[in-house]
User: Which sequence fits this backbone?
């Protein structure tokens, strides 16, 4: 058995195959960032955490969003800049996030960074700091 995908280490919200929609705010909050900024944020988080950033889902079509998955009710407590949106359980309505399986055909979704037992989520405070720093750096 592969310990990386052992049933005891894979969170219940990750589908066994393909991809599935998960309600943000239940299993996780998600911070949605688009395009080049998303790539920069993911890169900075990966570098800072020695490639243990927690779950980041990349969308290969449309706006090429990335979803940074943090613990439930953690991301919605921050004020995010324009173009960055926290998805969770709040008064603005319901939000669903596509989550790919850890292997197999999952297009148009893929993992930029997978959750691990040691780092099951992206740390919301660190993500907020990185996003803020990158947005302030734009001339």
Assistant:
């Amino acid at each position: 058995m592969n310990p990386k995908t052992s049933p005891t280490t894979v969170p219940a919200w990750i589908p066994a195959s393909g991809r599935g929609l998960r309600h943000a705010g239940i299993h996780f909050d998600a911070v949605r960032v688009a395009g080049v900024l998303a790539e920069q944020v993911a890169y900075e988080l990966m570098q800072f955490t020695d490639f243990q950033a927690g779950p980041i889902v990349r969308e290969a079509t449309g706006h090429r969003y990335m979803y940074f998955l943090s613990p439930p009710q953690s991301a919605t407590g921050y004020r995010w800049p324009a173009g960055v949106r926290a998805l969770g359980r709040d008064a603005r309505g319901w939000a669903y996030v596509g989550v790919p399986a850890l292997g197999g055909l999952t297009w148009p979704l893929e993992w930029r960074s997978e959750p691990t037992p040691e780092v099951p989520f992206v740390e919301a405070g660190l993500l907020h700091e990185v996003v803020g720093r990158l947005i302030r750096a734009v001339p």
User: Anything to note?
Assistant: Residues 28-134 form one domain. The chain has a mean pLDDT of 92. Helices lie at 35-48, 124-137. The chain has one domain: 28-134.
